[in-house]
From TrEMBL:
Protein name: Ribokinase
EC main group: transferase
Function: Catalyzes the phosphorylation of ribose at O-5 in a reaction requiring ATP and magnesium. The resulting D-ribose-5-phosphate can then be used either for sythesis of nucleotides, histidine, and tryptophan, or as a component of the pentose phosphate pathway.
One of the GO BP terms on file: D-ribose catabolic process
Boundaries of every Carbohydrate kinase PfkB domain copy: 2-287
Cofactor(s) it depends on: Mg(2+)
Annotated residues for binding of substrate: N10, M11, D12, G38, K39, G40, A41, N42, E138, D245
EC code: 2.7.1.15
Active site (record annotation): D245 (proton acceptor)
Pathway(s) served: Carbohydrate metabolism; D-ribose degradation; D-ribose 5-phosphate from beta-D-ribopyranose: step 2/2
Lineage: Bacteria, Bacillati, Bacillota, Clostridia, Peptostreptococcales
Principal subcellular localisation of the protein: cytoplasm
Length: 300
């Protein structure tokens, strides 16, 4: 199972508080730590932990965070030949998490915005054997557009996780095999608040499959032929960071194993749920065994 991920790599600075601050308010944090993150890297590490052969294409600064993040990707057995080092500081995120596991996130893109069309061209040889290529929107949109068009022309299957949400050109949708918005992102992309209407709007734009993550309500997958619902898994959530990234990676892993969409959503929902039970982004990503155990418990 070979997957390529083109996207962001960040260092997350996590502040744990009893409640999220109000406008203009200063709070003292109960705990602080740094954890490797970034949507692209989260998805790459999640896929690697679930058994895939993963190549990461992205950028890091020539700084301490960059050194730590590169080392971590290598430890997780992600191929980092496609990760450049630039003079721009490494991307980072400031994450505030309350006692209920809800969060606010502020991201500085940094070196992630040095991922250019030329860098994708230079590293195309690294994705020749990839069955799927995953994108997010924490690198420049022009680079994402170019990468999807270039790789689709080479016959690659494309998953786009449209986060952070932004308006996409209509010409991009027909090139996307699976798009995975949450409800907020779906509303922004489609221009309507109703989930069913929003899904249909994206299908009309040409996307092959729309998979919507619904948080505690599970998920749904819709194409022109059918709608498949994925049941949620009850866990004690303490931090929702990277739950969506884990879902995306797990969904592809299951589909690459030729699982039905029902089983793929179950696997992805279980993996995403497990990611909420530990603090941090990549520190919370589950293994295949952990996911299988949760699925078995859910069947009892």
């Amino acid at each position: 199972m070979k997957i390529a991920v083109i996207g962001s790599i960040n260092m997350d600075m996590i502040f744990q508080v009893k409640r999220l601050p109000q406008k203009g308010e200063t709070l003292l944090a109960d705990h602080y730590r740094t954890v490797p993150g970034g949507k692209g890297a989260n998805q790459a590490v999640a896929a690697a932990r679930l058994g895939a052969d993963v190549t990461m294409i992205g950028a890091l600064g020539k700084d301490g965070f960059g050194d730590q993040l590169m080392e971590h990707l290598n430890i997780e057995k992600v191929n980092t030949e496609g990760v450049m080092r630039t003079e721009t500081p490494s991307g980072n995120a400031s994450i505030t998490i309350d006692k209920e596991g809800h969060n606010t996130i502020m991201v500085y893109p940094g070196a992630n915005y040095d991922v250019t069309e030329k860098w994708i061209d230079d590293k195309l040889y690294l994705v020749e054997d990839a069955e799927w290529v995953m994108f997010q929107l924490e690198t420049p949109l022009l680079t994402v557009e170019y990468g999807i068009k270039r790789l689709k022309a080479l016959g690659k299957r494309i998953l786009l996780n449209p986060a952070p949400a932004q308006i996409l050109p209509d010409s991009l949708y027909p090139l996307i095999d699976i798009i995975t918005p949450n409800e907020t992102e779906l509303s922004l992309l489609s221009g309507v608040e109703n989930t069913d209407m929003g899904v249909q709007a994206l299908l009309k734009k040409g996307v092959n499959q729309v998979v919507v993550t619904l948080g505690e309500k599970g998920s749904i997958a819709v194409n022109e032929d059918k709608t498949t619902k994925g049941k949620p898994f009850a866990v004690h959530a303490i931090d929702t960071t990277a739950a969506g990234d884990t879902f995306n990676a797990a969904l592809l892993i299951a589909l690459m194993k030729e699982k039905s969409m029902t089983d793929a959503l179950s696997f992805a929902n279980a993996a995403g749920a497990l990611a909420t039970t530990k603090m941090g982004a990549q520190s919370s990503l589950p293994t295949d065994l952990e996911v299988q155990e949760l699925i078995k418990k859910g069947m009892k």
